[in-house]
Design goal:
It is a single chain. By secondary structure, the chain is α/β, with parallel strands linked by helices. The protein has a single domain (3-133), classed as Nucleotidyltransferase, domain 5, CATH 3.30.420.60. It is built from three helices and five strands. A five-stranded mixed β-sheet has the order 3-2-1-4-5, sandwiched between helices. Helix 1 (55-79) packs across helix 2. The longest helix has 25 residues, at 55-79.
Length: 135
């Protein structure tokens, strides 16, 4: 039986709708990734005109990247048995997920669409996935 999957995502959560025959399942995955923020101030070097300390900002950004990578891996585990996949959502998360999927051997050819979509309710996401695959 063919399984079609739609993924709406941003950097906070993913809403996954899978359709297999008459059966429809929903899954929500939270990212738990820290938000973007900028540290104010910084520590100065003891020497005049020396460099400011920015290592902590880099560490925070690296930690966020690792958190998002784990989030994408969790989404990929949830959709690994889909025959066709459509990804949609606001921002860059959809293209970042696409790049992670393309690194996997079995899934990269299963993506049939990537679309831009604003914030959507759960019902709107389900309807969009149904309309995409069952037209």
């Amino acid at each position: 039986m063919k399984k079609y999957t739609g993924v709406w995502l941003d950097h906070r959560k993913a809403f996954i709708v899978s359709i297999a025959g008459e059966k429809e399942t929903d899954t929500i995955i939270e990212s738990n990734a820290e938000g973007h923020f900028r540290l104010s101030g910084g520590s100065r070097s003891p020497t005049p005109y020396g460099p400011q300390e920015v290592a902590s900002e880099r560490k925070i950004e690296e930690r966020r990247k690792h958190q998002l990578r784990r989030y994408y891996e969790e989404i990929i585990r949830a959709i690994k048995d889909a025959e066709k996949i459509v990804i949609f959502g606001p921002g860059e998360a959809k293209t970042e997920l696409q790049r992670e999927i393309e690194k996997k051997k079995g899934l990269s050819g299963n993506i049939v669409g990537i679309e831009r979509a604003d914030k959507m309710t759960d019902k709107e996401i389900r309807a969009k996935v149904k309309n995409f695959f069952l037209q």
